[in-house]
Amino acid sequence: MDITVKNEKLNKWIKEVADMCRPDDIYICNGTKEEYDRMMAKLLASGSAIPLKKRTNSYLFRSDPSDVARVEDRTYISTSARDEAGPTNNWIDPAELKETMKRLYEGCMKGRTMYVIPFSMGPVGSPISKIGVEISDSPYVVCNMHIMTRVSSRVLELLDAGEDFIPCLHSIGAPLAPGQKDVQWPCAPIERKYISHFPEENLIWSYGSGYGGNALLGKKCLALRIASAMARREGWMAEHMLILRLTNPEGKQYHIAAAFPSACGKTNLAMMQPSIKGWKCECIGDDIAWMKIGADGRLYAINPESGFFGVAPGTSYETNPMAMDTLKENVIFTNCALTDDGDVWWEGMTDDVPEHLIDWKGRDWDPDSKVDAAHANARFTAPAAQCPVICKDWENPAGVPIDIFIFGGRRTSVVPLVYESFSWDHGVFLGATAASETTAANIGAVGNLRRDPFAMTPFCGYNMGDYFRHWLKMGERLGDKAPRIFYVNWFRKNDEGKFLWPGFSDNSRVLKWMCERIDGKADAQKTPIGLLPVEEGIDLTGLGISEENMKELMRIDTQAWRAEMPDIERHFAKFGSRLPENLTIQLQELRRRLG
Ligand code: GTP
Ligand code: SPV
Ligand code: MN
After folding, report:
1. Are 111 and 175 a contacting pair, CB within 8 Å?
2. 220 with 248, same domain?
3. Active site includes 387?
4. How far apart are CA 284 and CA 227, in angstroms?
5. 192 assigned to some structural domain
C-alpha cells in the first residue's frame, strides 16, 4: 500500500494507524458526489443499505441491536490528572487507556478498507473552522461524514499550507478473516467499546461502535468534547446548542441559541414555524454552536456542522414540517421502520399506522404489538442545505450575533414553561443546575431525572467546575453586550400524563415574550426562581389553551422547589473547590428567596 499525502504529520499518522490496524486497503476520501455514490453502491452490494423507492437517493440502515445510541458509560476524557476530567466524566490514565485500546486496534481492520476522511468543521478555510481527519473502517461512516461535515480534498491543501488537524481514529472493531462473510452492521460488544478523548493532545480514539456520535467523530467528539477544552484555553465557547434567527413583524432580527439535552427539542425548535402572525424563524444549526466575541464586543455563533443527525420518532408534518421537507431526498435513515411500498416510517410520523411494516430489527411488525416499529433513537442524516428554512447566513464565517440564550430540559413537573434569569450569574446558575429526564439518545435507563448542566454532561471535555467558571468569565468579558438568559420547559404534564403545552410551532409564543423582554416591552413578575411572564404576558392569540392549563404551566410550587435544594447541593458538592464561589452565592440566594 503506497498511499502518501503531502502533509508530513498526516502521512506519519496514516502509516502508524495502518501498521497497527492492518487494513487490506487504504483510501483517501475527496468528498465528491461520485465518491459518495461509490460508497453507497458498496453498502448496497453488501446488503447493509436498503434503497427507498419513495425517496430519491435515500437509504435505510439497520444497526446491530446492541449499537443504537451513544454510550456514555464507555466514553472517556483521558487527561494526565483525573481532576482535569472532573466528576462528570469517566477517566482512565492516558497511558493505560492507550495500552488497552492499542491491543484492540491491533489488526482490527483486517479484511477491510481504511478510509482517510479529511473534513472541516465550519466552512472550509474560515478562520473559525477546525480541521479534522477521521480514519475509519466503515463506509457507512464515510457517507454520513459527507453529509454531516465538509469532506473535501481542499482540506488536505489547507494542511499543506501549514494548518493543523485533529486526528480522529475510528474502528468498528470487527476484523474479517479471509473468506469470512460480513454482517449487516459489524461492531464490537459493549464491553469492548471505547469512545476516548485526549484533550491535552487534541486526539480522539473511538473503537467498537458504528452509531452516531460514537462514530461520526466530527460531531460530539471533536466539535464538543475536544472543542470545549480548546475553547476554554482560547477564550471562546463550544456548546450543545441550536442556533436560530427570529424576525418580528417589523423586520427586527433576533438570534437565539438554546441548549437542551439530547432528544429534548433542539432540532424541532431550530426549524420551528411560528404560529403567531408575522413572525419568521430560520434555522442556522440544530445541535452545536461555536461562539466567539466579535470586534463589536458581541458574541457571534457559527454552526460547525453541515447536516442534521436528527431524531426520527415524533417528527411529522404536524410537529416539524420543515424537517419533513428536508427529508425528501439524499437522506440516510438508521433504525427506522420500512413500509411495503419502500418508504420509511416511525412512531408519530402519521396518525394512520401502516398496516404492515418491517421493524428496525428487520422483522415483520404487527400494528397491535406493543413494541415500537422504529427504534426510539432512530435517526435521519440529511444535508442542512436541503432545509427549506435554512438561513441565508448559515455558512457566514462571521456567524450571527446572539441576543438570547435558552436552557431547558424535560421536566414532567415543578419547572414552569418559561422564566428569565435575574442576571448573567443567575443565568449561569440556571444552566449549571439544569435537570432533565434521560432519553434514548444514550444507551441506559430512560426517564431518570438527572442534573445535566448546560446540556453538556456527556460532552464537556474537561472539569465541569472549570466550565462553569469559563461561563462566568465570558459574562464578565461580554458585560452589557451579553445575551439575556432564559429557562424553558415544554414538557410539563398534567395528572393524566398529558403535555400541558402544545409545543412545536406554539413555542414561538414563548420566544416572542423573550424578544419583548429584551426590547423592554414586556413586564415580568419577580418570583423566587426568576422572572416570569405577567398574566396574559404570553401571546395566546388563536390558541385554544385553557386558563387552568396556563395557570399550571406557570405555577411555582415553592415546596417542590425547596425539595430540589438537597439535590442541587449534592450536585454542586461534587465539584469541590472547582465550584466557582459565585454559584454558591446564587444557591444561597435562591434558598433565601424560597424562604
Ligand atoms: P439530539 O439530536 O439528540 O441532540 O436531540 P434534539 O434536542 O435535537 O431533540 P429533537 O428536536 O429531535 O426532539 C426530540 C423529541 O422531542 C422528538 O420526538 C420531538 O418530537 C419531541 N419534541 C421536540 N419539541 C417538542 C415540544 O415542543 N413539545 C413536545 N411535547 N415534544 C417535543
Ligand atoms: C445527541 O445525542 O445529542 C445527538 C445524537 O445529537 S449523537 O450524534 O449520536 O450524539
Ligand atoms: Mn445533540
Report:
1. yes
2. no
3. no
4. 19
5. yes
Q: Whose CA is nearest to atom 18 of ligand 1?
A: 314
Average pLDDT over the chain, rounded to an integer: 97
| pLDDT one-digit tens code per residue, 204-259 | 999 999 999 999 999 999 999 999 999 999 999 999 999 999 999 999 999 999 99
Which residue's entry shows cell 440516510?
332
Residue 66 lies in a domain: no
Q: Which residue positions in the chain have pLDDT lower than 70?
A: 1-2
- The enclosing H or E element of 548 equals helix 547-554
User: Helix, strand, or coil here: 209?
Assistant: coil
Judged by phi (left if over 0) then psi (alpha if -120 to 50, else beta), residue 579 lies in: beta
The SS3 call for residue 38 is helix
Whether 376 and 404 share a structural domain: no
- The finding on whether 459 has its CB within 6 A of some atom of ligand 1 is no
- Based on the fold, state whether residues 328 and 413 are members of the same structural domain: no
What is the best residue among 67, 72, 217, 219 to mutate for testing ligand 2's pocket, by most ligand atoms within 8 Å of CB? Answer: 219
Taking the C-alpha atoms of residue 241 and residue 565, their distance in angstroms, rounded to an integer, is: 27
- Ligand 2 and 308: CB distance under 6 A: no
The pLDDT of residue 550 is: 97
Query: In 82-176, where do the E strands start and end?
Result: 113-121, 130-136, 150-151, 166-171
**Shortest CA distance to 160 belongs to which of 28, 4, 8?**
8
Same domain, 288 and 321: no
Q: Is 286 in the pocket of ligand 2 (CB under 6 A)?
A: no
Tell me, in angstroms, the distance from the centre of ligand 2 to residue 235's CA.
Answer: 25
Q: Is residue 545 part of a domain?
A: yes
Residues 94 and 171 in one domain: yes
Q: C-alpha grid cell for residue 305?
A: 456542522
Domain shared by 141 and 246, yes or no: no
CA distance 466 to 532: 30
CA-to-CA separations, 454 to 149, 204, 264, 433, 466, in angstroms, rounded: 24, 23, 13, 8, 13
Residue 581 lies in domain: 238-303+394-594
Q: Give the distance (Å) from ligand 3 centre to CA of residue 261.
A: 7
Phi, psi of 151 (to 5 degrees): -90, 130
CATH number at residue 406: 3.90.228.20
Same-domain check for residues 142 and 280: no
In a domain, 55, yes or no: no
Mark the residues whose beta carbon lies below 5 A from ion ligand 3. Answer: 262, 287
CA distance 231 to 460: 11
* DSSP 8-state assignment for residue 268: H
Domain count, the chain: 3
Whether 113 and 201 map to the same domain: the answer is: yes
Give tens-digit pLDDT for 338-357. 999 999 999 999 999 999 99
Mutate to test the pocket of ligand 2, among 134, 222, 240, 262 (most ligand atoms within 8 A of CB): 262
Longest dimension (CA), the chain: 72
